[in-house]
Amino acid sequence: MSTTSTNKALARVLKSPGGHWVGDGFPVRSLFNYMEHAQELSPFLLLDYGGPAEFPPTDERLGVGPHPHRGFETVTIVFAGEVEHRDSSGAGGRIGPGDVQWMTAGRGVVHEEFHGRDFAKRGGAFEMAQLWVNLPRKDKLTTPRYQEIQGAQIGSVARSGARVRVIAGELDGVRGPALTFSPLNVWDIRVERAGPLELPSPSGHTAALVVLAGELQVGGAKVNEAQVARFERGGDGVRVEASAGAHLLFLGGEPLDEPVVGRGPFVMNTESEIWQAIADFQAGRMGRLD
């Protein structure tokens, strides 16, 4: 008996409304957010693409000061420059080009993010992406966890004229180092030659390709820099035409199929849980940074 594979159809192209600053160190474009796209992109909540930008040398600390999170994970991928992190659980570190910081806020943390001190002093190119990944209802109040993943820990696969770094999930037998609470794939893709790019994605799973540089052709539609191709969940793979030198993120995962209620840095399942998160933060129950 033979089986016939089908590609997921393009559902729509998401376009960023424009850029803004997070603190004074991160010029970003929000490519999607949980207020508009939570269900169609579940389990992914938000993606901020920071840069590319050039920063002059400085002795100032550029970034964003202490702020809380509860109910989800933040995934920071650095392509150029450095990011330093510190949170109220006692975790922290510095990540540079190729590295990933995967922070599980869970029941709540307060953290800060700044440019690395060495990078700030010398200045230069800065580029990063921060992805918010939702936690299942049963894990919303899990113990906070910090994963600092060095670039050397991330395996890669040659596929369809591209080099694919497997940050989370699995591709062609290579498993990513990130530990996740639900089945998902996060792949960092550099297209080496123009042509078709095919990637597996189980039927029923969310699938999206984020274009950080270059362009894609998908079913007659063009997807440009700082745009997202979201696919229908039927079908078991995606197929696009990619330009040489394109830089992409593939986001795939099993939808959580749970209510999403969010306010700023808190994402829970009910309005009452949001009010509890605000009260817990104000009372210091998420910890503090001295």
Please give the structural blueprint:
Elements: E1 10-15, E2 19-22, E3 26-32, H1 34-37, E4 44-55, E5 63-69, E6 72-80, E7 83-87, E8 92-95, E9 100-104, E10 109-115, H2 117-122, E11 124-134, E12 145-149, E13 156-159, E14 162-168, E15 170-171, E16 174-175, E17 184-191, E18 195-200, E19 206-213, E20 216-218, E21 221-223, E22 227-231, E23 237-242, E24 247-253, E25 261-263, E26 266-268, H3 271-282
Which features characterize this protein?
290 residues; seven-stranded antiparallel β-sheet; 3 helices
Q: If you had to describe this structure to a student in words, what would you say it looks like?
A:
The chain is 8% helix and 51% strand. With 290 residues, the protein is mostly beta strands. The strands form six sheets. The chain has a seven-stranded antiparallel β-sheet with strand order 1-22-19-24-17-14-13, with no helix packed on it. A seven-stranded antiparallel β-sheet has the order 2-3-4-11-6-9-12. The longest helix has 12 residues.
Shape: globular
The stretches of 5 or more residues where confidence is low (pLDDT under 50) are none
- Strands of the largest sheet, in order across it? 1-22-19-24-17-14-13
Number of helices: 3
What is the number of E strands? Answer: 26
| Percent of residues in beta strands | over 45%
Indicate the structural class.
mainly beta
Main β-sheet: number of strands, strand sense, barrel status? 7 strands, antiparallel
**DSSP helix fraction:** under 10%
End-to-end gap: 64 Å
Using only C-alpha atoms, the radius of gyration works out to 19 Å
How much is the average pLDDT? Answer: 96
Instruction: Tell me the series of helices and strands, N- to C-terminal.
Output: EEEHEEEEEEEHEEEEEEEEEEEEEEEEH
